[in-house]
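@channel sequence for tomorrow's demo:
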Amino acid sequence: MAKSPRPNRTLDRDLGSRRMLQKANVAIRQPVVAPALAGTFIFLSGLIASFAFGYGSNGLIIAAAAAIGAYMALNIGANDVANNVGPAVGSSALSMGGALIMAAIFESAGAMLAGGDVVSTISKGIIDPSYVSDPKVFVWVMLAALMASAVWVNLATWVGAPVSTTHSVVGGVMGAGIAAAGLVAVNWPKMSQIAASWVISPFLGGVIAALFLWFIKSRISDQEDKITAAQRWVPVLIAIMAGAFSAYLAVKGLKKIIKIDLQTALLIGAVASAATYFITKPLILRQSMGKENTKETVRGLFVIPLIFAAALLSFAHGANDVANAVGPLAAIVHTVDLGEVASKVSIPIWVMAVGAFGLSLGLLLFGPKMIRLVGESITKLNPLRAYCVALSAAITVIIASWLGLPVSSTHIAVGAVFGVGFFREAHWRYGANKSDVQEVVATEAAKAQKKKRKHRKLVRRSHFLTIIAAWLITVPAAGILSAVIFVVLNTYAG
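structure tokens (generated this afternoon):
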């Protein structure tokens, strides 16, 4: 007698179909959630500003500027913050969730506690203020620059290119300034310095990172007794990191709390370096005692210092780069409220809050894409290599400050990642492992192995070309877009 079909088979099939529909619905809605939350933040920023300043023409301008400033802050969080935590995630020192939470906390803390309370209204002296002294024209210049730089950074994030938000703002101010007053308004020597930094920043960052990686490999990783070498040199490297970051934060991250010159910052760094050495030496000795004599053990000694480096980079970035989002906004608020153009303005606390919260929200909603790109897609990183990237970023900024060069933290960090990757290629082909393939080979298999080693690429060239192209066109692209926006605003909203 044939068995009757299970009575709940149809029900199981229906429930399975329902579950599939639910999964499909979630998959459809998920890409919409982040933009919806970002849009809500932008809308609320403008709404709160309109409540505070009223619904007259001036209040509406400030509300629009607050919304655009919030949009810019979101994009800085999505694009720029990846440079600070990307290497730590790519090396598995931090999980993606841990990196997002840590960076959001330290970015916000840096912005609120140490973000500059006075900013230049004409970004970094690009435009002569006398050419845009009319308050109405000045407001349109700042609004156009803010909108253009935000759109450009958003586009760069979408195509997967980490770009300098500082250069985006500079390009926006330059383009709107030219549209308002002509080429004569631009400080071209200053623009030449910024153009030079496109080459200097990544090259210097890459060279310093590669030199540290070479030092670690030659003095620790490739030594026969790796544990003894690590006990000797790792405390020195951590001390260098502590000194570099102390000086870095003193120069770049504590402007609001106290003004420190470079010489004093270097002295602070030297004291911090010495103290860190004596503190960490017994800790490293205890941590490495009894461990296997392997490269994996050496890499493990850099995990905790790397996490501290990522946190400190995030704090300094929040303190320094929040002005890219809120500087033009503060200038607009000051000009509209008081009816005058000032060369420097104070940033109101609510404006700083928009920038700080926007950085964190942009990072949490859109940051993972750029974090994976910087940390995983360019070249393979481990804690040792990622440590060299973080250390290079701090040291390069100090050197650039000493030389008076305007550099981009984005260019430095990404250049350091490329430097580490290209060093790995060179080391693979010509370095310590060269003895694995004999100079004189007798078999075709050995020849093929040598050829494979010679042509193996450890840096993705497609990302390299995309990022370099994005860097080169950032200022002109933001400038052209800003000029168009200024003309529209000045024609139809003036």
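heads up for whoever presents: The first helix runs from residue 9 to 53.
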